[in-house]
Design a protein that fits this description.
By secondary structure, the chain is mainly beta. It is about 15% helix and about 45% strand. β10 and β11 form a beta hairpin. It is globular, with a radius of gyration of 16 Å.
């Protein structure tokens, strides 16, 4: 007998004291923080660019982008490289915690919750090991339209 409940895998990470998760299918890789070349006259959340094995990737401080608050200075930072159909963006987070499986029964709808992140960026909230994990839609955070992804897929 097959289980009819769909389960999705998420990469869980921390920004300050809050826990977040993104669909694992959007993650290309996780790398240690490295030297970032600043870009002049960029918004404060765009930290610059890195060269990752010959590919130039824009780096965003996700804490500043989502919450307008800098990340904790005392923690070791990590970069999550996101892949939106050949559109690569790196996001700096405080730490990557784990990969988790959430099914539709464990994800609650987003209501007017007291989170420091705009509700329009959230797709749900899941409970995990006593913590509330905010599920974020990074396509909305970065304004990546589906047409852009479809176009990139046609070129690839």
């Amino acid at each position: 007998m097959s289980n009819s409940i769909s389960t999705d895998r998420f990469l869980c990470f921390s920004l300050s004291a809050e826990k977040f998760a993104i669909p694992l299918l959007q993650v290309k890789e996780v790398v240690a923080l490295q030297k970032i070349t600043p870009l002049p006259q960029s918004p404060n959340y765009i930290k610059g660019i890195i060269n990752l094995r010959g590919q130039v990737i824009s780096i965003v401080d996700l804490g500043l982008k989502l919450k307008n608050a800098a990340l904790n200075a005392d923690e070791k930072k990590t970069i999550i490289i996101l892949d939106f159909a050949s559109i690569f963006i790196g996001v700096i987070v405080d730490s990557v915690d784990s990969v988790a499986d959430f099914n539709q029964e464990t994800i609650s709808a987003v209501q007017e919750i007291a989170a420091s992140v705009k509700n329009e960026y959230l797709t749900g909230v899941a409970a995990r090991k006593g913590d509330m994990v905010l599920l974020i839609d990074l396509k909305k955070v970065f304004g990546i339209k589906e047409e852009l992804i479809e176009r990139a897929n046609m070129v690839a």
